[in-house]
User: Which sequence fits this backbone?
């Protein structure tokens, strides 16, 4: 017997939570500006799946990695 479970798209709160998880290290290391609104970013992917939101988070982490490799200063 096979069971299929449908998982819908995350709502606004879910998208913000996903972005918060994936941007935590950036915020912790002062690479994420205080003026960056995760709520606004969550609104940009209203029709996006959770995997699309995760991709945005991964891109944020990639920026953090490149910045630390390049010796970016958090002034």
Assistant:
């Amino acid at each position: 017997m096979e069971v299929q479970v449908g998982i819908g798209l995350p709502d606004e709160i879910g998208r913000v939570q996903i972005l918060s998880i994936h941007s935590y290290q950036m915020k912790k290391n002062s690479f994420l500006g205080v003026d960056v609104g995760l709520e606004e970013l969550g609104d940009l992917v209203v029709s996006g799946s959770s995997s699309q939101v995760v991709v945005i988070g991964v891109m944020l982490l990639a920026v953090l990695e490149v910045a630390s490799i390049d010796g970016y200063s958090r002034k």
Observations:
- The longest helix spans residues 50-69.
- The helical segments are 12-28, 38-44, 50-69.
